[in-house]
Design brief:
255 residues; mainly alpha; Fic-like fold; 12 helices; disordered C terminus
Length: 255
């Protein structure tokens, strides 16, 4: 079912029974079957996969040796910014609602910059077809509206995947920074997953063309494909945690 991206906080009808109930029910089953320690360690283990995918999707070339080293708990420096950002997400997700401060910190951390990043002051070229990017002077207002909606009843009443999909598409339409907006949007998928007690989630670089199409469709008020893609990512992470041996061993000292 198509969902319109809200233009104003509180717009639209809350859908407590919206998409994602099956994923939530499966999360509860996997968590119960795995037990608290395996559930916790399995979620932490998938942080590396979310970092790897973020780096690959945003143009960082990683060797198989670097990826395997990160999975063993000895990441190369190239993993540092993404892992730092995901550690910050892990600490923030308990509040369930993203903030402007968090967004700016994630941008700076993921880019290896000191301090919080400022919003862009120039118009930039859109990364996705159909994106009507905000003029720079409207970025604070439009991002504020998005965050207010996400934290309000209309946003909180949504299941994980549709809430994340609406934020993901709207954030890319605003693109508050001069560069690296997709990186922040992709990292925020894990924020929404952890906020609802799911494992970290990510998209794969092999799916880049499909992601681009899904985002462009979301700009045209059809978020169903993007929602389904995120639901698939949630199921994949649950599959990994549910493995008999748990998720692959990886970094254990994150946030």
């Amino acid at each position: 079912m198509a969902d319109a991206l809200p233009l104003h906080p509180g717009a639209g009808t809350p859908r407590p029974q919206g998409p994602g109930q099956e994923v939530r029910a499966r999360r509860d089953r996997v968590r119960e079957q795995a037990g608290s320690e395996r559930w916790r360690s399995g979620r932490v283990a998938l942080v590396t996969e979310a970092a790897r995918a973020t780096l690959q999707l945003t143009g960082t070339a990683l060797t198989e040796q670097e990826i395997e080293a990160a999975r063993r708990g000895t990441p190369a420096p190239s993993f540092g910014p993404a892992l730092g950002a995901l550690g910050r997400i892990g600490r923030a997700a308990a509040d369930r609602d993203p903030t402007e401060e968090l967004i700016c910190e994630l941008h700076a951390l993921s880019a290896g910059l000191p301090g919080a990043s400022p919003f862009r002051t120039v118009q930039i070229e859109p990364q996705f077809q159909g994106a009507g990017l905000s003029p720079p002077q409207t970025v604070p207002l439009r991002l504020g509206e998005l965050l207010e909606w996400t934290s309000g009843a209309s946003g909180r009443d949504l299941e994980t995947a549709p809430r994340a999909a609406l934020f993901f598409a709207r954030f890319l339409e605003i693109s508050p920074f001069e560069r690296a907006n997709f990186r922040v949007a992709h990292l925020m998928l894990t924020f929404f997953a952890l906020a609802d007690d799911h494992p970290p989630i990510w998209f794969e670089v092999e799916d880049a063309a499909g992601i681009r199409e899904d985002v462009s469709r979301a700009f045209r008020f059809d978020t169903a494909p993007l929602t389904q893609r995120i639901e698939g990512s949630l199921h994949r992470s649950l599959d990994l945690v549910a493995l008999p041996g748990g998720a692959p061993a990886t970094i254990r000292n994150i946030g």
